[in-house]
Amino acid sequence: xxxxxxxSKKVLTITPDFTFQKIVKxxxxxxxxxxxxxxxxxxxxxxxxEKDLFHKLFPKQKTFYKDAEYYMNYDRMERDAPAVLxxxxxxxxxxxxxxVAPDDHVLKACSLFMVHGIRRLPVIDKGRLVGIVTTGxxxxxxxxxxxxxxxxx
Length: 153
Description:
The protein has 153 residues and is of the alpha+beta class. It has helices at 20-30, 50-57, 61-66, 68-71, 74-80, 106-116, 135-148, and strands at 34-38, 44-49, 120-125, 128-134. The strands form two sheets. Strands 1-2 form a two-stranded antiparallel sheet. A two-stranded antiparallel sheet has the order 3-4.
């Protein structure tokens, strides 16, 4: 089974200037956990997920141990959290875009999900974003196909 058979062609995207606050509202409104970030030419330049947003609230390990007392005071962290609201997507997104092509096998997408600990992959054909494949679409289609002998759309 190929990626093109399970991908969604309707892809929500954001631009690099979306702020943390706007991203949170966008993901919540559309009930998705991440989206590709595209430039003015509609080329994928990054991906942003809920995980990336959480990473902006919590420090890297090295930073944590420099001031563990601060980072263990959750009430103080909550008070300081609004400081991230204006940070643009370009400073939050994962810039290494792991992607698949429409004619790739779905198991390639599965292996990329597992190896990189991600849940969505932009589908890019000749440099253009043509779809998105998620762990959910693989589950609903490929895994159901192999267990029941048919494609569920």
